[in-house]
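Structure, all two chains, one model.
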Amino acid sequence: DAGITQSPRHKVTETGTPVTLRCHQTENHRYMYWYRQDPGHGLRLIHYSYGVKDTDKGEVSDGYSVSRSKTEDFLLTLESATSSQTSVYFCAISDFTGTGNTIYFGEGSWLTVV
Amino acid sequence: DQQVKQNSPSLSVQEGRISILNCDYTNSMFDYFLWYKKYPAEGPTFLISISSIKDKNEDGRFTVFLNKSAKHLSLHIVPSQPGDSAVYFCAASTLNSGNTPLVFGKGTRLSVIA
């Protein structure tokens, strides 16, 4: 198993409150990602990082921000949670070797916004 | 606009028979393709990959076929087992453009009936 830890694993929060999800890796991989999974939508990229302090947006980045101050940690913040952000959030990591970008996922964080 | 399409949301197969999961893509720049398997309440796990220089890659019971002219790939599972029941995601990226994030299809739920 890839050394990826997500926290919290489950959270219920109220609309309008800020929420931060944390992803911690022990693999020293350069690349880290946040995806969300929703019924009928599959896995969609929110933000990703290609190094410390280097991040970029994915296809569903509105309402989310990220930060990466250390190689091992990638934080996803919902500034003001909305019900549409109720989802399962997966962190992933990869280390591009030139033979392909295989990414490895964490166990997921279940977020419910009420 | 979906770049990776899995047009069958679900598939049921009898134990011991072949399971064929299909995936189509629209971006001709994609040159590296992967399949992931996901059980409920777990993160997706990498299953098998193929680069565009090959048309087939095999790993035990799992074989991925790539038809570049048709922009189509398929995952064959032979023989299918009840433990293969899961959601399968197809993913693609552009190997030669650096570490571009994977683009996922919406997934196909495979049910293997004993």
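The radius of gyration of chain A is 13 Å.
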